Inverse folding.
């Protein structure tokens, strides 16, 4: 194949790559590093993060809903 | 990831007992429909994933793995239904045996087992798409964009990405919705504060100026700066922090405010505005088309707010929020005229609902004074009226149903006499209260102002926090949407490029300039392909069924290449590409062989000729195939490995079934002659109907081969390669002798030896014929065990350069020394 991207031995984990890029990008739009760290734990460790765990990660240093 | 070496299938689906040695290489299973081929595909999937897609997908209600995976006679004993699969893991250089039973599909016995092996097996288990059937292949090519997006998303494991997007959007929407009511509450609190402060402009200087006038009266120091914790009544005794009497000045100000509002609401100017509004509502209400549009538009707008959840809030039916949202947005576009009309009137209605809210707040203040008066004034009528106001406000804000809004407008200026009477009575009683001393008035002023300032501060804080939450969650969702879109666009661009390249490869004869467009949008994946330079259309629009099959396969391969990279080492193609014509099948074989040399393909087909194509193209080694001849419920498929056409003919002769043997020999010779002519670039008398018979094909094939060997001999001699020239000459002489023995040249003149007469021969006469043709045909094949492919001329067009086999063992130069 003439695709410029070389083939790798790794199976592509597309969701994982998107999540990592998303968390990195959050820092560029001035989301606090605490929020990013908490989101990272929830998103990368939980198979399907629930609404409540995401809310806790987003708001635990301001005010919970 | 893996390659498969051997499978043992016991009491599984339609199979009683079957052992297949895949030999770690490409393998084909051929058999008519219903002979048990798919049972092998199911067994492979089950061994690797613990599941059988065709027993668990949509439309399989009432069918389950546990009840229906075992052979029907072992359905009550699922432990008997088991698969023992031996695989190799190239990256670990290890062979692993997986033994899985239908009784306990989640706990296979894996030997040997270690974390590295388990990791790879887990990866395989999450990729059941290594098996592709024609039904699934079509899903990639000609399904609706929404369905295709689902299939591709499932293949790329994007369900998790979509799930997170849904939740983040839900959180962002919920937080955005919280802000406007809090803003209204904050504005109301500010108005009440200004009223208490007796100022009209909300700024620190004006506030402190007014407050310090009262503090001077009470000999309290002036407040210089207003901080978030400043108390306006700082220095007053703590006991005076609650008003237990009526603050006359404030009460009269509140009553005046109420009266001003009532005057405004009942003024002639308001009446004129209401009349104009009513006219517009009448027009709207009397035009059924616009009214229907407005009604549906409003309904759809409400619906779009509710589709954040994963299911319908009414009946709990699961839905795809993104897809549904896009559908609703599409419908909303048809109501543009109605939307504009509704938006215009709603804007004009806004001040009226705001006035009603203000009236409600003002009535609440005055209502409170009634309870403090002595004697107490019963304000029940005010309370009831407040309920009416809330209802009217609700109707105006909701807009629909229109009759309720029209009714609210009609009664907008109606203030019950009883309420006016109560306001009069309260004002009279408050006025009768002795005027407070300057000090008392100042104390009441500071106390009430402080109360209202605290209320304002509290609601301001809540509003600010809500705004911050809305900003954060919107930012998080927007970032997620942006990253996801960019990432997926990147993936789809790569897949689009690879797909185009693969499809061009198999259709280079007529679509060498083919291009395609994969266009992702929310919840959809558009797929348009170039049709001979006339524009881009969906694959099903103009392309033939065969081309669509080719597109499905190419899109699948492009996706798998992207998803698995070098780990794409194994795939099962279950009876795919049935609609592809013979010319393109050859190219498909070349595609799989050349573009995916490290992938082991297990292919099933019900078409024997297709299998022959695979073999002669060198995709399937001659010894790596299996034929399922027939199937019955008691025994499962009857098969024989590496079916050898010659053995079968011999068997027929042995059974004195010359008719069958002759028919088989003739059909096989027709097929293989056609392949030889193609590969050797032989000149065949053209037939527009393509109905070539053996007599049209075999003589040109043998003649061309002999000619090529002659050219090879001359070329070798010209280069001084004497030994090579001698070897080629021997090959040619042997071949020519076989041609002579076959009496091909005499077919046209001697009907006694014509193939049409074979079936009239006896066994003893026919056996030598078969023997000669067997030797003759085998001369066209490479004898290497791993090759056994037909010789072919290189290149396919233009000046002939060499005669080769697939493995390169035979490579006869055809070009003489200049």
């Amino acid at each position: 194949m003439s695709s410029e991207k070389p083939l790798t031995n790794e199976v592509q984990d597309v969701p994982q790559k998107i999540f990592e890029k998303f968390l990195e990008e959050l820092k560029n739009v001035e989301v606090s590093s605490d929020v990013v760290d908490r989101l990272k734990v929830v998103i990368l460790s939980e198979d399907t993060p629930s609404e409540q765990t995401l809310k806790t990660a987003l708001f635990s240093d301001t005010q919970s809903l | 990831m893996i390659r498969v070496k051997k499978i043992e299938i016991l009491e599984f689906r339609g199979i009683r007992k079957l052992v297949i040695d895949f030999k770690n290489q490409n393998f084909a299973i051929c058999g008519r429909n219903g002979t048990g081929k798919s049972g092998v595909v199911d067994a492979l999937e089950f061994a690797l994933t613990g599941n059988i897609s065709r027993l668990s997908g949509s439309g399989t209600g009432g069918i389950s793995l546990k009840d229906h995976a075992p052979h029907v006679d072992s359905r009550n004993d699922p432990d008997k239904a088991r698969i023992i699969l031996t695989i190799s893991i190239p990256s670990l250089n290890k062979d692993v045996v997986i033994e899985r039973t239908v009784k306990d599909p989640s706990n296979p016995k894996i030997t040997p087992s270690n974390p590295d092996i388990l990791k790879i097996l887990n990866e395989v288990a999450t990729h059941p798409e290594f098996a592709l059937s024609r039904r699934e292949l079509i899903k990639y090519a000609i399904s609706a964009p929404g369905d295709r997006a689902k299939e591709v998303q499932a293949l790329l494991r994007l369900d998790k990405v979509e799930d997170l997007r849904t939740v983040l959007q839900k959180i962002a929407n919920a937080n955005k919705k919280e802000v406007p009511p809090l803003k209204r509450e904050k504005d109301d609190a500010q108005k009440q504060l200004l009223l208490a402060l007796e100022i009209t402009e909300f700024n620190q200087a004006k506030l402190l100026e007014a407050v310090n006038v009262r503090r001077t009266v009470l000999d309290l120091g002036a407040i210089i700066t207003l901080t978030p914790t400043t108390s306006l009544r700082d220095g007053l005794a703590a006991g005076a922090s609650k008003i237990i009497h009526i603050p006359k000045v404030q009460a009269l100000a509140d009553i005046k405010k109420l009266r001003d509002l009532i005057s405004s609401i009942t003024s002639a100017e308001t009446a004129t505005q209401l009349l104009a509004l009513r006219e517009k509502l009448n027009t709207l209400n009397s035009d059924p088309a616009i009214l229907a549009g407005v009604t549906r538009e409003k309904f759809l707008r409400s619906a779009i707010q509710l589709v954040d959840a994963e299911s319908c809030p009414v009946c709990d039916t699961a839905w795809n929020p993104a897809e549904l949202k896009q559908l609703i947005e599409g419908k909303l576009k048809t109501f543009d005229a109605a939307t504009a009309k509704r938006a215009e009137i709603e804007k004009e209605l806004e001040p009226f609902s705001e006035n009603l809210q203000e009236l409600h707040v003002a009535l609440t203040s005055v209502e409170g004074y009634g309870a403090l008066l002595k004697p107490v004034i019963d304000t029940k009528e005010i309370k009831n009226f407040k309920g009416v106001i809330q209802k009217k406000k609700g109707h105006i804000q909701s807009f629909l149903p229109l009759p309720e809004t029209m009714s609210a407008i009609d009664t907008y200026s109606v203030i019950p006499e009883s309420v006016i009477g109560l306001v009069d009575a309260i004002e009279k009683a408050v006025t009768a209260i002795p005027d407070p001393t300057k000090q008392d008035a100042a104390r009441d002023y500071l106390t009430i102002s402080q109360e209202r300032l605290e209320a304002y501060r509290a609601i301001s804080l809540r509003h600010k926090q809500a705004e911050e939450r809305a900003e954060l969650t919107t930012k998080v969702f927007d970032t997620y949407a942006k990253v996801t879109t960019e990432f997926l666009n990147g993936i789809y661009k790569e897949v689009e490029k690879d797909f185009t390249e693969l499809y061009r490869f198999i259709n280079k004869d007529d679509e060498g300039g083919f291009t395609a467009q994969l266009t992702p949008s929310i919840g959809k994946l558009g797929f348009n392909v170039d049709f001979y330079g006339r524009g881009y259309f969906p694959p099903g629009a103009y392309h033939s069924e065969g081309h669509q099959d080719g597109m499905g396969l190419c899109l699948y391969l492009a996706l798998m290449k992207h998803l698995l990279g070098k780990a794409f080492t194994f795939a099962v193609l279950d009876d795919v590409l049935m609609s592809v014509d013979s010319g393109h099948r050859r190219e498909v074989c070349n595609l799989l062989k050349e573009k995916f040399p490290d992938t082991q393909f297990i292919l099933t087909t019900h078409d024997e000729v297709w299998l022959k194509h695979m073999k002669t193209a060198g995709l399937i080694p001659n010894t790596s195939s299996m034929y399922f001849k027939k199937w019955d419920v008691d025994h499962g498929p009857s098969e024989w490995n590496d079916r050898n056409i010659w053995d079968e003919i011999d068997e027929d002769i042995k059974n004195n079934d010359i008719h069958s043997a002759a028919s088989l020999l003739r059909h096989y010779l027709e097929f293989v002659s056609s392949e030889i002519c193609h590969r050797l670039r032989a000149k065949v008398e053209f037939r527009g109907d393509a109905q070539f018979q053996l007599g049209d094909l075999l003589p040109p094939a043998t003649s061309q081969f002999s000619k090529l060997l002659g050219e090879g001999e001359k070329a070798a001699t010209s280069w001084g390669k004497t030994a090579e020239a001698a070897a080629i000459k021997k090959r040619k002489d042997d071949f020519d002798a076989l041609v002579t023995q076959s009496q091909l040249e005499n077919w046209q003149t001697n009907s006694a030896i014509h193939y049409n007469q074979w079936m009239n021969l006896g066994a003893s006469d026919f056996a030598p014929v078969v023997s000669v043709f067997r030797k003759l045909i085998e001369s066209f094949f490479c004898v290497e065990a791993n090759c056994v492919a037909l010789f072919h001329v290189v290149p396919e067009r233009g000046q002939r350069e060499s005669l080769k086999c697939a493995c390169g063992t035979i490579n006869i130069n055809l070009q003489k020394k200049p």
User: Anything to note?
Assistant: DSSP finds 26 helices and 17 strands in chain B.
